[in-house]
Design brief:
7 strands; alpha/beta; single chain
């Protein structure tokens, strides 16, 4: 028998992509190269505001602007991630990011996602003006009674959105459930219910996820997921450099095995 080393196939990396909700400080920035995407023009039309100008990272944005800006930014980043041949096995979202994840799954059109995000932002902003002292009065950040009108508006709008069959499974963050191919996430529940990060991670582990890309704003959610101390690598996905690093991390490697 000849001794030596032979190559064996290593475990294949599997990627999940997480779309966080709006940052607490409501300020967002975008790489200049991303702003050429037509998504920002569409988002501006839906929001009635110049989304490209808003994404300077220096301006505190109203909820009616920050939420469509967030969804446009995340979907632009997701498109660029796909262009790096980083194809996800699962997607999941939190807050307004659930809408971006819904579009990324292939179940709704990007334009419909931007329209829903603009509607969600306007409804939440109105509710916060009517009930300004209710913020942070529930685990989800908003009082259920105060958010009831916004929930009704969002539920009706989501029900009317034309749907397609998902080509990427979506994990609902409030419940940890993997949605059916044509099932809508409960966007109304997202207004008052906190995400169940543990349940989401359990789904990732059951599906053999090795890497998670967290789109902007990544820091808070990536730290929360890291604190769970599971055998998954968590990556920020906020710049083109980040995306290339993720693509390299996902490149399958061969393992060496001794034979003899």
């Amino acid at each position: 028998m000849v001794s030596g080393v032979r190559k064996t196939a290593a475990r294949q990396p599997r990627l999940a992509v997480v779309f966080p909700g709006e940052p607490v400080e409501r300020a967002l920035g975008a790489p200049a190269s991303w702003l050429a995407d037509s998504l920002f023009t569409d988002a501006s039309a839906c929001a009635g505001s110049d989304i490209r100008r808003a994404l300077t990272g220096r301006t505190v944005l109203g909820t009616a602007v920050v939420q469509p800006a967030l969804v446009a930014l995340q979907l632009a980043g997701f498109r660029r991630l796909l262009a790096c041949d980083a194809v996800p096995a699962l997607v999941a979202g939190q807050g307004a990011g659930e809408i971006a994840a819904w579009a990324a799954s292939g179940a709704i059109d990007d334009h419909e996602a931007l329209r829903l995000a603009a509607l969600r932002g306007a409804a939440v902003e109105l509710a916060s003006l009517v009930h300004p002292v209710t913020r942070r009065s529930s685990p989800g950040g908003w009082n259920t009674i105060a958010m009831a009108p916004a929930q009704d508006v969002l539920s009706s709008a989501a029900a009317a959105v034309p749907r397609m069959m998902r080509h990427v499974p979506q994990v609902e963050s409030a419940s940890g459930a993997v949605l059916a191919e044509d099932e809508a996430p409960d966007l109304a529940a997202q207004l008052v219910d906190p995400p169940d990060w543990r349940a989401m991670l359990d789904v990732f582990l059951r599906h053999g996820v090795t890497d998670v890309a967290v789109l902007a704003p990544a820091r808070f959610v990536r730290n929360v997921l890291r604190d769970a101390r599971v055998a998954i690598a968590f990556h920020a996905a906020e710049t083109d450099t980040d995306l290339l690093k993720i693509a390299r991390a996902l490149a399958p490697e061969e393992e060496e095995a001794q034979v003899g």
